[in-house]
């Protein structure tokens, strides 16, 4: 254990490893609810998680329904330009673009967020290329530019990013983040923009071509994204490596989903994406129904809070290994009511139905996203 800690400290002392602290803030859902706007928002923004993972849209228009980020609570700070202008962003392994609001955005949604001003940066270079990211009731439109981006202690030069000029609806006003920094593959990047981590690799800014994520159970602190290295103090349980099945999202093959040694879903294998930009667990509607029935929940996923201590783990079987998620994690408690952290999403791929393992899953494991070997590493957290 001492050796692991020593290796960890040596690795983290290198200049080509950078830790970005993630802060836990109020989710968009909570903010809207506090302002009495949640019901109206949900009515006018139909929720369709599947649209985030339809590749046919990604090549021409990046589709990111705002409702996909309703429950996200973990954000970090980056800076863009010279001198740096700071932004709070969501680090999203389920998308590939970097975008922030610009001073040219006159939408009400932009007025209470940090906005990038190209005129204040001596290193900014504009382009004639436009970008459009679709939302439920409209789209974020803007243009692409190049500038210096600082992520932790890493400075990326000539990074392409989107500057919004319009943002849809008044509800963006309440989002707790300014923009999104995508960490998926270039193949799904809108407008062919090179993702931030790809530039970190090509500019030799990271020791290893990987990054890792830890989401703390602490309400406020401890969470981080580590670029270029592995913090071995979080891997005492060993690292299990799982090869990617596609170089688009962080997609892997799942052998099955079990409960008390009984297969309840994904019986003939399926696909799963590990996505920091999705808060819950998403699965085909038939699988969600099976899980609801097996756990004694109703058709809305609501369940008795008193049953948490007696319910079994839901086990995700990946590459021949078992990765359990306990009831204390897959049951959400809010204002005295309890519900399952599973949502329906029907998307088929060439290799089978698609599941999303979001933050509910990531809370249980230290996750290593390895671009150098196209694999994901999982280490159980004690």
UniProtKB/TrEMBL annotation:
GO terms for molecular function: aspartic-type endopeptidase activity. The keyword Disulfide bond applies. The active site is at residues 92, 275. Belongs to the peptidase A1 family. GO terms for biological process: digestion; proteolysis. Shows particularly broad specificity; although bonds involving phenylalanine and leucine are preferred, many others are also cleaved to some extent. Keywords: Aspartyl protease, Digestion, Disulfide bond, Hydrolase, Protease, Signal. Pfam families: A1_Propeptide (PF07966), Asp (PF00026). Residues 74-379 form the Peptidase A1 domain. The gene is Pga_0. This is pepsin A. Disulfide bonds join 105-110, 266-270, 305-338. It comes from Crypturellus undulatus. Residues 1-15 form the signal peptide. Its EC number is 3.4.23.1. It is an enzyme of class 3 (hydrolase). InterPro entries: Aspartic_peptidase_A1, Aspartic_peptidase_AS, Aspartic_peptidase_N, PEPTIDASE_A1, Peptidase_aspartic_dom_sf.
């Amino acid at each position: 254990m001492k050796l692991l800690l020593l290796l960890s400290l040596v690795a983290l002392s290198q200049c080509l490893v950078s830790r970005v602290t993630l802060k836990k803030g109020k989710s968009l859902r909570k903010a809207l609810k506090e302002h009495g706007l949640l019901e109206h928002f949900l009515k006018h923004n139909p929720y369709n998680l599947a649209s985030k993972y339809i590749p046919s849209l990604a090549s021409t228009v990046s589709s990111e329904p705002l409702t996909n980020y309703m429950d996200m609570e973990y954000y970090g700070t980056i800076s863009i330009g010279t001198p740096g202008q700071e932004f709070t962003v969501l680090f999203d392994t389920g998308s590939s673009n970097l975008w922030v609001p610009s001073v040219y955005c006159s939408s009400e949604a932009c007025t209470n967020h940090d906005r990038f001003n190209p005129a204040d940066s001596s290193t900014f270079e504009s382009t004639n290329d436009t970008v459009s990211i679709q939302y439920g009731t409209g789209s974020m439109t803007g243009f692409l530019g190049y500038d210096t981006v600082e992520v932790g202690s890493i400075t990326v030069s000539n990074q392409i990013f989107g500057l919004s000029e319009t943002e849809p609806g008044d509800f963006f006003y309440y989002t707790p983040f300014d923009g999104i920094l995508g960490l998926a593959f270039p193949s799904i990047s809108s407008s062919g923009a090179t993702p931030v981590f790809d530039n970190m690799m090509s500019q030799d800014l990271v020791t290893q071509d990987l990054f890792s994520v830890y989401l703390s159970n602490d309400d406020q602190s401890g969470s981080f994204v580590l670029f270029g290295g592995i913090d071995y103090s979080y891997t005492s349980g060993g690292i299990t490596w799982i090869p990617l099945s596609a170089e688009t999202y962080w997609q892997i093959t799942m052998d099955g989903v079990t409960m008390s040694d009984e297969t309840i879903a994904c019986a003939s294998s399926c696909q799963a994406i590990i996505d920091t930009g999705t808060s819950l667990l998403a699965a085909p509607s038939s699988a969600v129904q099976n899980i609801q029935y097996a756990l004694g929940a109703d058709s809305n996923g609501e369940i008795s809070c008193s049953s948490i201590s007696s319910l079994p783990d839901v086990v995700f079987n990946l590459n021949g290994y078992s990765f359990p998620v306990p009831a204390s994690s897959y049951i959400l408690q809010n204002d005295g009511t309890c519900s399952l952290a599973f949502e329906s999403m029907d998307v088929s791929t060439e290799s089978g139905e698609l599941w999303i393992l979001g933050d509910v899953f990531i809370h249980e494991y230290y996750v290593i996203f390895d671009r150098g070997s196209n694999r994901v590493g999982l280490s159980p957290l004690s």
